[in-house]
TrEMBL record:
<keyword id="KW-0732">Signal</keyword>
<protein>
    <recommendedName>
        <fullName>PKD domain-containing protein</fullName>
    </recommendedName>
</protein>
<feature type="region of interest" description="Disordered">
    <location>
        <begin position="39"/>
        <end position="68"/>
    </location>
</feature>
<dbReference type="InterPro" id="IPR000601">
    <property type="entry name" value="PKD_dom"/>
</dbReference>
<feature type="signal peptide">
    <location>
        <begin position="1"/>
        <end position="26"/>
    </location>
</feature>
<feature type="domain" description="PKD">
    <location>
        <begin position="208"/>
        <end position="259"/>
    </location>
</feature>
Length: 325
């Protein structure tokens, strides 16, 4: 048993067994990062290859590494699997989320030492909430340059902007569409570079968006690893699906909210990029989707001859919200 596994076994005494599980991802063909993502080795009794669950031994009899010389951080499981594209990436996030209770995320444990402050991934995994002490109270040696979770979350990480595919001209804070269409919006997001100072050392921080949490205002929610994008110009809005669209079944004005989840890394001097434990969730400025239905009537004259006729004054039969301001 490695020192990392001993540490994990000790942690298992202070948190529910369901929160730290001896599992790992593997693909159908056995090569990590290819094919559909599945879990294997669930609830390993021996702890071999899992590193996350208690193996039944009394951890008090095992020499636990001192936090002053060794420490651990928790990184989102799918973060370093950049070779995943399209649906594979969402499958990885969905499979990871399915392992945890609501309000928790699936993390892989990274082990650090004074000799290797950048750390190495271990087989250990854990379901933890954003406020878990294991994340926010990570205990690195005081003289080691590091960026804590709370320091990362306190940085001014810019929020993503909600972009509507059909915005109201001159009022881009509103989108307009018809009921039962696939209303498309996406997140204008990017990787952000920020500077901070730790122990008198200038540290460069990289914040990378890894997850987008949508609330469409009609009771529908969606979480995806894709920022989304515009559809082709000739796409049918009733049929063409995107990663971030939503179908509204009723007319009305719906507030759309977005939270972008960032993972962090930092570097200083000639160090490589060192992962920051946990994630930072940054809410966006909400926008409004105005959803309408189409109504047609037979009329006896056109609006040039009869400007007072039905729907001649405006295509809207009631005042739209952007004209009420």
């Amino acid at each position: 048993m490695t020192s990392s596994q001993l540490m994990i076994a000790a942690l298992a005494l202070t948190i529910p067994l369901s929160a730290v599980v001896g599992t790992s991802f593997a693909s159908l063909n056995g090569a990590a990062g290819e094919g559909e993502w599945l879990f294997e080795g669930e609830d390993s009794e021996s702890g071999d290859g899992g590193g996350g669950g208690s193996n039944g031994e009394n951890s008090a009899s095992n020499p636990v590494p001192e936090r002053a010389t060794e420490w651990e951080t928790y990184v989102p499981y799918c973060r370093d699997r950049s070779n995943l594209t399209g649906e594979e990436s969402d499958d990885c996030h969905a499979s990871a989320s399915a392992r945890c209770d609501e309000g928790e995320s699936f993390y892989q444990i990274r082990h650090h030492t004074r000799e290797n402050p950048e750390g190495s991934l271990t087989p250990g995994v854990a379901c933890l909430s954003d406020s878990s002490p294991l994340i926010v109270d990570a205990d690195a040696p005081e003289e080691v340059v590091t960026v804590t979770t709370n320091e990362f979350r306190s940085l001014p990480i810019p929020s993503s902007e909600i972009v509507f595919e059909s915005p109201v001209e001159g009022h881009e804070e509103y989108g307009i569409a018809l009921i039962r269409q696939r209303v498309n919006q996406w997140a204008d997001s990017q990787v952000h570079m920020l500077d901070t100072t730790v122990l008198g050392t200038v540290v460069e921080v990289r914040a990378t968006p890894i997850e987008y949490q949508w609330n469409y205002g009609d009771g529908n929610h969606r979480t995806t690893s894709h920022a989304g994008d515009a559809r082709p110009d000739d796409a049918d809005p009733y049929e063409y699906r995107t990663y971030t669209d939503n179908i509204y079944e009723e007319t009305g004005n719906y507030e759309v909210n977005l939270t972008t989840v960032y993972t962090g890394e930092f570097r200083y001097g000639d160090s490589g990029w060192i992962p920051i434990s946990g994630v930072a969730s940054v809410p966006s400025e909400p926008k409004i989707n105005s959803i309408w239905k189409r109504e047609t009537r037979n009329v006896s004259a056109d609006c040039i001859e009869h400007p007072e006729g039905w729907a001649c004054d405006s295509p809207f039969l009631k005042t739209p919200p952007w004209e009420e301001e």
